[in-house]
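G., before I forget:
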Amino acid sequence: MRVLIRGLGELCITAGLVLLLFVTYELWGTGRYTHEQQDKLSKEMMRSWASEGATAPGKVTTERVRLGKGLAMIRIPRFGSSYHYVVIEGVSLADLRKGPGHYPGTQLPGEVGNFVVSGHRTTYSAPFNRVGELKPGDEIDVDTRDGKYVYKVTAKQVVDPTDVQVTAPVPFHPGERPSKRMITLTTCHPMYSAAERLIVFGQLSAQYPRVTGK
Amino acid sequence: MYALIWRLLPGGWPLKTAVAAGLALVVAVILWYAVFPWVEPQIQFDHGVMNGSPATAPSSPSRHGP
């Protein structure tokens, strides 16, 4: 009996330690994978931009950018000058492990409609960890093959995970014809949970053509 | 369990401690690099994606669910 109880106790302690290690892995270990993938994808993307930009500066289209590949570079000055992530085309679990992902089927940067990007708020390097700090007027910069698009944050909202209308060309009004050039960031809310979604809306305020030969 | 392992370890207590620490490290490394990367995707709790396909896009973006 005593042996049994002791064995059970040791088992519980072991399980606790393994769990603790797992939580550590979730929060910090998963970021290593994201960093590796981001490095790889950003090199790939820059090479592709440089080579195709030199011959014929083409438009970014989903046909050119395959699922799981880099589409654009997102920068948010409020999070520091070193903050930048490659936006992946696709929002599957596998895509989001590599970095923030663009919803296939939603508009591309600079287009009339809604450029929707989803990202992890915790784990996997947590690209959208601090989007809750964004305030109206804050810049979100998106670099693509053909230019730089500067969006200004307009609103922030917490919604249910099922409120897919936020990804519509006119958020909350699916089917309506868009006239604004919007960006929408989605991430989970509250942190470490998937109970709700934090949504940040922005609108295009400026755009600059990319200098060729870069 | 641990008492049995301790008894089976060779040498005096300094050697036993060293081997035990080494074993613990090996277990931790196996967990970190092999077991956790496999377990993690199955229990992922941090979903930033809106459930269901976007209202305008007929093709569902999710290959593995939201």
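Residues 31-209 of chain A form a domain with the Sortase; Chain: A; fold (CATH 2.40.260.10). Residues 12 and 112 of chain A are 57 Å apart (CA to CA).

More on Monday.
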